[in-house]
Specification:
Length: 161
């Protein structure tokens, strides 16, 4: 099982998103995702988050909030635990990313873009004050979400899609 991070950096009601269009064999190919990547040996989720944001964007984030954990189960891809962060304080200038195209996307417009079905759930959770921290389990068959559990309980995920 691999461990990863994802960070949704916010500015003026928009998130900095990455359109994954540059790598051929990419499980996120053609999808819009937050900023993140694999946790390296001896690295904490917080350290990985800072490193990945800087490597992919050129930005240094401050006071990132650890918002949740998402467990992905798939019939195709290796299982994954993703540590979810948000940040709204940063410095630096955006740079070109070798994994895709960076763009500031209005939070309300995200749901009309090609994103994973499960991302729609945690995007709503990170904007819901009722969930300062959450554990979300998402199960996929191919690209189709077939089950979701929030904090250990079955979730009617279709209301998020």
């Amino acid at each position: 099982m691999r461990n990863t991070t994802i960070c949704h950096i916010e500015k003026d009601g928009k998130y900095l998103m990455l359109h994954r269009v540059k790598k051929k064999n990419d499980l996120n190919r053609d999808k819009w995702v937050g900023i993140g990547g694999k946790i390296e040996e001896r690295e904490s989720p917080e350290q990985c988050n800072m490193r990945e944001v800087f490597e992919e964007t050129g930005l240094t984030i401050y006071d990132a909030e650890y918002r949740g954990v998402v467990t992905f189960v798939s019939d195709i891809w290796e299982s994954e635990i993703m540590h979810v962060f948000t940040a709204d304080r940063f410095s630096g200038s955006l740079k070109q990313c070798d994994e895709g195209v960076l763009a500031w996307i209005d939070k309300n417009d995200l749901y009309s873009l090609p994103i994973w079905e499960g991302d729609k759930i945690f995007l709503k959770l990170i904007n819901d004050p009722e969930y300062p921290f959450f554990s979300l389990r998402l199960e996929y068959v191919g690209d189709t979400l077939i089950d979701a559990q929030l904090n250990g309980k079955s979730l009617n995920y279709k209301e998020y899609l």
